[in-house]
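Q: How would the structure tokens look for this protein?
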Amino acid sequence: MNIGEAAEQSGISSKMIRKYEDSGLIPKARRSDAGYRTYSENDIHTFRFIKTARSLGFSLKDIKELLSLWKNKKRASSKVKKIAEKHIENLEIKSSEINTMLKTLKHLTQNCHGDDRPDCPILSNLESSVIFQK
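A: Here is the predicted structure in token form.
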């Protein structure tokens, strides 16, 4: 099938398929006599794997490693688990950072009068947090 059909069946855009190919995440596509990319059902399965991994927030580097492990039937599941556990750790850090941002913004907006006066704790906080670089 061509790239448009592969994109439709996998749920990944043609642009992303090309990007994944260019980045080395997936091998270069086979080409028809006319020079068009062609894909198999196995390729679609791989694209769906990538889409699911991306939806879970895995990096392209991690996905490349997961793909390699997925294709290796002699793999140790401990290697897969290690990647997932590291990703969980990173997500927990990001979640904590987002919760801190939310708490701060909620506090600042609750203390902002939102009227015609120029005083604004939101802007004051942003101003006081600026690091000047020369």
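The radius of gyration is 23 Å.

The CA atoms of residues 53 and 59 lie 8 Å apart.

Upvote if useful.
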